[in-house]
Amino acid sequence: MDIAPLPSARPASHKAVPNSSAAPDYALPRILDRNTDSALLQATLLQQRQEFELQILDATEKLIDFPSLQSADPAHPDPAEATRFKTLLTLFQPADYDSLIHERNINGKCGYALCPCSRLIENTRAKFRILRGKGNPEDFQVVPRAQLEQWCSEECAKRALYLKVQLDEQPAWMRASPHDVKLVLLDDL
To answer: In a 3-state reduction of DSSP, which class is residue 177?
Structure first.
């Protein structure tokens, strides 16, 4: 079995038959450079994505144990802890925040990370609850019990959901400046 030598390895006296579908010999290095550059770019982007995901996981682990004091007031959190809380959340998407709430709930804590209280657990087999409005007796909502049991109170639910709607839907690795997200606590208004 004869193996044809590479085009650049052919003797100068050898005349190749031009093939209209093949790229010219001088274009081959540029194509390889472009493919190499593309592969390196993809690898760099993948590595950046993994680094951001690792930072989000690390932030989630830290926020599971928030606040540091069991006597902390979620309506008036320690300013340093509130700043750290908002800084840790800057890379989060709403789905990441839902994961944080879920992890805190698994540990029996209120889903709002600046609240030291235990989450509310109702002793019932009902899967839904009817919540009545404050003004109109006909104003009510049917809410899954699991949704209500994520928090210790309605106030903490409002605080947590107020933060969630401020989070960027776009993944951190796709944002122009992922750390420039400015979050505001509900009680700071």
So the answer is: coil
Q: What is the pTM of this model?
A: 0.70
Q: Convert 16-35 to b/e letters by CB count within 10 Å (16 or more is b).
A: eeeeeeeeeeeeeeeeeeee
Q: Which two tokens stand for residue 178?
A: 């992922």
Q: Which two tokens stand for residue 189?
A: 């208004």
Average the pLDDT over 8-29 and give the result: 52
Distances (CA, A) of 186 to 77, 102, 162, 164: 11, 21, 6, 11
Dihedral (CA of 115, 117, 119, 122) sign: negative
DSSP state of 25: G
Structure confidence at residue 143 (pLDDT): 66
Q: For 38-42, 73-77, 107-111, 166-170, which range has the lowest pLDDT when averaged over its residues? A: 38-42
Give which of 149, 130, 127, 147 is closest to 139, Cα–Cα. 130
DSSP assignments along 83-140, one per residue: HHHHHHHTT--HHHHHHHHHHHHHTTB-SSTT--SBPP------SEEEEE-SS-TT-E
Return the top range by mean pLDDT from 23-27, 92-96, 184-188: 92-96
Query: By C-alpha distance, which of 52, 62, 61 is closest to 181?
Result: 52
Structure tokens that stand for 134 in this block: 């404050």
Q: What is the DSSP letter of 46?
A: H
